[in-house]
Amino acid sequence: MKIDPRLVELREGENLKLEPRYASTNNICHKILYSEPRLWIHKKTLPKLIQAQQTAKTQNLQLWIWDAYRPPEVQKQLWNACPDPRYVANPQTGGSLHARGVALDLTLARNKKLLDCGSDFDHMGNAAHWDAYDAGLISAAQQENRLLLRSLMQDAGFETIATEWWHWQLPSPKNSPWEILPSPYQP
Length: 187
Ligand SMILES: [Zn+2]
Fold this sequence. Notes:
This protein is of the alpha+beta class. Helix content is 21%, strand content 18%. The strands form two sheets. Strands 2, 4, 5, 6, 7 and 8 form a six-stranded mixed sheet that branches. Strands 1-3 form a two-stranded antiparallel ribbon.
């Protein structure tokens, strides 16, 4: 199959662990949404991810990636499972930066053990928000882990969104918004 040349496949490494949750049933749809346990990102995302990975390494941390490029068809299934624009981008109104390869869902691990950030991936509720600590929903230790992730990802040039601590994306260029890319997954 021909894969769009703007997409590069992520490979596991010493400080990069892949756990594609949508290639398992451990996700909000409780079904396998990706035909294979592989992840891709836009090649322009890669240098920033490598920068974050290198910083993580100096702190004896691993980046633990749950999702990256996401096909528009899968975005529709997620929207059907959770039609709430705070957590899932509406496929009818432009869709997700994941479909453009410039968004990543990830957390941190130390010695292959996930740091406790106070909620699971795709927890659709207030505990996933960046103000969860101020709202009394997560502990100081959990907040510290989130801030560790934030400093690492922001220093590498990523931005987050208010409602999902695990979501990181590239800023959108003003004049040429990122384009939706065709799926590299086997049908
Ligand atoms: Zn995301």
